[in-house]
Amino acid sequence: MSKFHHTVSRREFMKIIGLAGAGVGGAALVAPTFHDLDEVIASESGGWKRPWWIKSVDEPTVEVDWSHIKRYDHRIMAHSSYPNAQHWGADKWRANREESSKASAARVGTKGNTLRDTALGTAGGYFQSYRPLIPYLTKKPIEGWMGVTPTNPEKLGMAKWQGTPEENTRMVRAAAICFGAGNIGTAELAGHERNLVYTHTRIGPKGNSTGTQWIDNWPPPAGYWRKIDFENVDVGYNAQIDGVDDCRLVLPDRPLWDISVMIPMARASWSTTGTGNDSTKLSSESNTGRYRMFHQSVYPCLQMFINILGWHSYGYGAGDGPGGMMPSEASAVVGGVSEMGRSSEICINPEHGPVTGYYSVITDLPLQPAKPIDAGIFRFCHTCRRCAEFCPSQAISHEAEPSWDIPKFDYLVPNMINAPGKRLFWTNTTQCQGFSGINGCSQVCRGICTMNTETGAMVHGLIKQTVSTTSLFNGFFWEMGKTFGYELMDADTWWEIAPGLPTWGTGITDWSSSLR
User: Fold this and answer.
1) Alpha-carbon span 399 to 290, nearest angstrom
2) Which residues form a coiled coil (predicted)?
3) Would you list the domain boundaries of the chain?
4) What is the dihedral of CA 423, 314, 71, 368, to 10 degrees?
5) Cβ(452)–Cβ(487) under 8 Å?
6) DSSP β-ladder status, 226-231 and 244-252
7) HSE of 444 in the Cβ direction (CA atoms, 13 Å)?
8) What would the pLDDT profile of 502-511 be if each residue is shown by its tens digit?
């Protein structure tokens, strides 16, 4: 990458893509157009000052047919053994899981999995083994999907918080960022958006429904999932199913809003992920970091913040780290945080790229709904096949155009994991899960993505601005990414540059220049 930074000037780059001296030609395509001052300062973002080239649009850039969007059972998602065993056959899937365990043991001590790599990866996930205590408030762990309410406006001698949706959104955004979020999006769960809420979560108070023990015993009994219902009540609650507590989560059938929380992850360490049998503990720690930040800081603090104001919030049941109430990628897209990518498992954020984690918190605090965004990312994915080329399992589509039709792939039964209603480049999720279990792929598609380049170098900003407004140069940029070395990083190299990276490794910088 250093070759690109040090041999191509801004003027030369503009000449290359045909914008220098373009007048009303190519330059007009990437320049913002404002008709008056009111248009400049008008904002639907509720306090999110994004670059001019990220546009708000009425519909997501990935086409959605809401008539086909039904509530999804999260127990049959990609990480669940049951649907994958139906796709491949139970014997083949069990053999794959056994091979996965052996392969994981064989990686111990290899590059990216040395003692120091393992120490970092293991320490980064330590938070999952305990729950934080707040003895001066509750004497109990912070758990449960409605959070902790140590006090309320009445106890404080104040009235319940009342603000406009715009004021509330700015306030929640400020609080979320203070607690550690990269930013938030917002959407009203009204009408067809209600169908984004899961029917069941994949994790319950007794354990989860994703293991191989349920292949021949589907569905798992109460306690290994939670059922989500809407009822005509003012405040949500949880209840028993078959005598097991905390198995039924009830949302009020009242106006509700979704807060999409975006957590940036460390790009450099994520880029150490391998393309074969050499996944690394460094990329694993980058992935774990988003859960650490969200569940130990953003989520409990944001819930408590909303609750103290006199409102309610609903999120993740006890022990449910990755699930929540609705697909976090859908939350990010409808909430205006990110766009879908070629890999149908990944959202791409204009500011931070694909190395971002997403979470969803539902609230009855009125918020200003954001619109979806168009930064040219999904259009760029139509041309760019970099993730598909590097995917070691070849699970990502190479097609030129997305499709409404969900492929059956080589499955023995119709695709159980992917849900209809979106026009996507569909990923073979069972192939992805089967391969990564053995080889520890760790989503190399994120690390190698052209959008994973840091934005500290000015030229990357120019590219993003161009991509957002015209697809004319997308093919050139795709090839340029190969030419100028947008590659994965050696694990040992990461340890050399890590002391110079920003806090949490997520700031706007240009770590690639450190590799020269």
Assistant:
1) 31
2) none
3) 43-371+380-452
4) -50
5) no
6) parallel
7) 31
8) 888 876 555 4
b/e code 251-273 from CB counts within 10 Å (16+ = b): bbeeebbbbbbbbbbbbbbbbbb
> Looking up tokens 């990357």, which residue turns up?
460
Lowest mean pLDDT among 16-20, 122-126, 418-422: 16-20
Whole-prediction pTM:
0.85
Number of other residues whose CB lies within 10 A of the CB of residue 296: 17
Query: Interior CA angle at 428 toward 426 and 429, to 5°?
Result: 110
One-letter amino acid for residue 97 of the chain = R
CA 103 from centre of chain: 27
Written as one string, the DSSP assignment of 165-181 is HHHHHHHHHHHHHHHT-
The answer, yes or no, to whether residue 59 has pLDDT greater than 90, is: yes
Cα–Cα dist 183/54, whole Å: 15
- Close Cβ partners of 153 (under 8 Å, ≥ 6 residues apart): 159, 160, 161, 308, 309, 310
Residues 182, 503 contacting (CB under 8 angstroms)? no
Strand partners, 200: 73, 227
Question: Quick one: angle between helices 115-124 and 281-293, nearest 10?
Answer: 20
Q: Would the CA dihedral through 197, 203, 204, 205 be positive or negative?
A: negative
Q: Single out the residue of 186, 183, 152, 180 nearest to residue 166, CA to CA.
A: 186
